[in-house]
Amino acid sequence: MASWQRILVPVDFSETSQSAVRQAVDFAASFRSSLILLHVGDKAAADVATEFPLGLEASLLDAERERLLKVLTPAEQAQFHPEFVIVAGSPANEIVRCASEREVDLIVMGTHGRSGVSHMLIGSVAERVIRSAPCPVLVVRNSELATAVDVTSTPDSVGSALNA
């Protein structure tokens, strides 16, 4: 059985991210794991903040820190003593870097489930993390979004799709 002592959860404050946090909390409770919550801020926004009024960057960082602290309930914070990390940069790169530096055993992250042209243009942070992560990655979809789409497949429809 896997021993997941350190679980990393990237947080972008979306509903899918919150679903990943809930899943990670369940795993942490089951395996008595520690949690690391990571928020990757926009590098461009941080650069802009340094060009404007002094202290604006610190205010933005404080606001992100406050939001990140509210991701877990006070009881969960008391139970898991999570580490909160905020960095600026490319989300996929920073997630993998954090996992490597902190010797994480599992990454639990949400996916927005983009497809088609938006997926080709934007790409998937989860996909890039999966390709280069130093540990297993559990990708969580928002259960409300997943149940809103009714997907029915039969052997004939799958065969037709593969032969198309």
How do the strands and helices of this protein lay out in sequence?
Elements: E1 6-10, H1 15-31, E2 34-41, H2 43-51, H3 56-69, H4 74-80, E3 83-88, H5 91-101, E4 106-111, H6 116-122, H7 125-132, E5 137-141, H8 143-147, H9 155-163
Parallel strand pairs: 1-2, 1-4, 2-3, 4-5
Helix pairs in contact: 5-7
Describe what this molecule looks like in 3D.
This protein is α/β, with parallel strands linked by helices and 164 residues long. It has a single domain, classed as HUPs (Rossmann fold), CATH 3.40.50. Helix content is 53%, strand content 18%. The chain has helices at residues 15-31, 43-51, 56-69, 74-80, 91-101, 116-122, 125-132, 143-147, 155-163, and strands spanning 6-10, 34-41, 83-88, 106-111, 137-141. A 5-stranded parallel β-sheet has the order 3-2-1-4-5, sandwiched between helices. Helix 5 (91-101) packs parallel to helix 7. It is globular. The model is unreliable at 44-50, 118-122 and 145-164 (pLDDT under 50).
